[in-house]
Specification:
This protein is α/β, with parallel strands linked by helices. It has helices at residues 19-22, 27-37, 51-61, 80-88, 127-140, and strands at residues 2-7, 42-47, 67-71, 93-97, 119-122. The chain has a five-stranded parallel beta sheet, with helices on both faces. The longest helix is centred in the last third of the chain and has 14 residues, at 127-140. The structure holds 1,3,4-trihydroxy-5-OXO-cyclohexanecarboxylic acid. 1,3,4-trihydroxy-5-OXO-cyclohexanecarboxylic acid (DQA) binds at residues 10, 71, 73-74, 76, 97-99, 101, 108.
């Protein structure tokens, strides 16, 4: 089972970015915990602050991987291009968010990713990623 986590803009700053919203742990640290927990899964991690690079990575992995866990961050609310990429590929995409975007500003209530996603997990902090990976494992049984 091959799964990639794709993180969008500013998520490279996790740990120091608005810790009251996103927590104090760096994603690199959390990712090692995930690798330890899901030893049977080939887990990959990609982060970019650039919309086109995120689209490129979805296209590159979206016809051969078993799952994509996508936190498009701010692009969630703006990017028709990433939304279209999610719809274009064969690999199922689970949309995740660390925060509960629905109890935040109005502009975070819209997602261009959700219409093409297999499902959406949000508001569980970094555990949202863990739950997304589990959803692929259980779906494979
Ligand atoms: C986020 C929520 C987005 O609204 C925000 O722009 C982010 C992170 C989250 O994981 O909670 O950068 O996707």
């Amino acid at each position: 089972m091959k799964i990639i986590i794709i993180n969008g803009p500013n998520l490279n700053l996790l740990g120091k970015r608005e810790p009251e919203v996103y927590g104090k742990q760096t994603f690199e640290d959390y990712f090692s915990q995930l690798q330890f927990k899901f030893k049977d899964v080939q887990l990959e991690y990609f982060q970019s602050n650039i919309e086109g690079e995120i689209i490129g990575k979805i296209q590159e992995t979206g016809f051969s991987y078993d799952g994509i866990v996508l936190n498009a961050a701010a692009y969630t609310h703006t990017s028709v291009g990433i939304g279209d990429a999610v719809k274009a590929v064969e690999t199922p995409v689970v949309e995740v968010h660390i925060s509960n975007t629905f109890n935040r500003e109005e502009f975070r209530h819209t997602s261009y990713i959700s219409p093409g996603a297999k499902g959406v997990i949000l508001g569980f902090g970094l555990q949202s990623y863990d739950l997304a990976i589990q959803s692929f494992l259980e779906g494979a049984e």
